[in-house]
Amino acid sequence: MGPASFGARPTGERLERVRRSPQYRDGAFRNERPVRMAGFGDALSMVRDFARRGERLRRTPARPVPLARPAAPTDVPASGLRLTWLGHASVLAEIDGHRVLFDPVFGKRCSPFSFAGPKRLHPVPVALAELGRLDVVVISHDHYDHLDMSTIRELIAGDAVFAVPLGVGAHLERWGVPEARVVELDWHESATVGGLTLTATPGQHFCGRGLRDRWQTLWASWVVAGPEHRVYHSGDTGYFPGFAEIGAEHGPFDATMVQIGAYSSAYWPDIHMTPEEGVRAHLDVSGGAPHGVLLPIHWGTFNLAMHPWDEPAERTVAEAKAVDVTVAVPRPGESFEPAAGLPVSSWWESVAVRPAPGARTPDPSLNARPADG
C-alpha cells in the first residue's frame, strides 16, 4: 500500500459501489466531456519552467502575508451565515447553527512527504484545535492540497461527520476515521447531517494520490443547504456547462467559494479555472445574474502554478467589478458575514512583488487568459 499518506484504494463493497457509478466507465472515473491534461513530457517541461523562471514570474509574496484571527467559536453569527477563509481551499462555513469545514489542509506541505513538495507561503491562521466544534468536514477530492492526512487524523478527536466523494472514504478509514462517521456520495446524491443537506455535485477535474490510483476516486463540488442559507464550494474544476445545471437545481446561493488560482493554459486548461472563468462560474450557479457573494479560493497559500502570486486576486476583483459581482477577498483567517459587511482591503497589494520598471513580462503561454474567457 505504500506510505500511509498515499491512502488506500477502494475495495470490497466500496469498490462495487464505485463500479456502479454512472461516472465510472472502462475502469476509471470520467468527466462528462474529454479534458486536456499535462502528460509526462509536459510535466517535465513544467518542472523546468518552475525551476528556471520562478523568480522572474513573482510567484511568492515579497513580505509576510497578513493573517487575521477568526471569529471566536462562541461568537454566533447574527445573520446566520459566516465564512472564514483559512487559506487555499480551506473554508469554515457557519450556516444556520452548524459548522462546516471544507477541504481542511493544516499541514506544512501539500505532499505525501514531510521533506518535499509545495510548502506553505504563510502559517495557518489558527490551530485546528482552536476552531471549536465542527459538525461536518467536507472533502472535494483526494489531491494533497485538499486532503491532508495529518489534518484528518487530528480531526478524528472530534465527532464531525466526514462527507466525501465516492472512493475517498478508503483513505480516511486507513487513517483511522471510523466507518460510521464517513458519508460517501456520488454526484447528485444527498445526505442529511443535523439540519443541513449536503449534495455532491459535478466538477471537471481528476484524482489520485500515487502513481497507480489516478481516476479511481471521484471528485466533486458541494452544495450545503440549511433552513435559511445555502452555499456552494467548487473544489477544483475547469469551467464547464455543469455550473448552470447546478445553479438551476440548487441555487441561487448566499455565497460561493470558487477556485480561481493555479491555472495554466499550457499545462491544465480544462481542470483549473482562470479568475475570469471563476467569476463566470459564480454567475452560472447564481442563475446567470449577480447574486450572493463570491469568495475566491485556491490561491495565496501554496505555490502551484507559474502565474504571479497576487494575480488571481487582482484578476478576480477586476472581472467581478466588470460584471457587477460582489466579491470578498479576506486575509487568511478573516471571518465575515455576507449579509453584514465584507472585507474591503486590497491587502495583497502591499505583499506582492512588483515588477521592476522595464522588466520583461512573463511568457503568456504559461498562464494566459483563454480566448473565450
From TrEMBL:
The keyword Metal-binding does not apply. GO terms for cellular component: cytoplasm. Keywords: Hydrolase. Residues 1-26 are annotated as: Disordered. Residues 98-299 form the Metallo-beta-lactamase domain. The keyword Plastid does not apply. Pfam families: Lactamase_B_2 (PF12706). InterPro entries: Metallo-B-lactamas, RibonucZ/Hydroxyglut_hydro. One of its GO terms (molecular function) is hydrolase activity. This is MBL fold metallo-hydrolase. It comes from Streptomyces radicis.
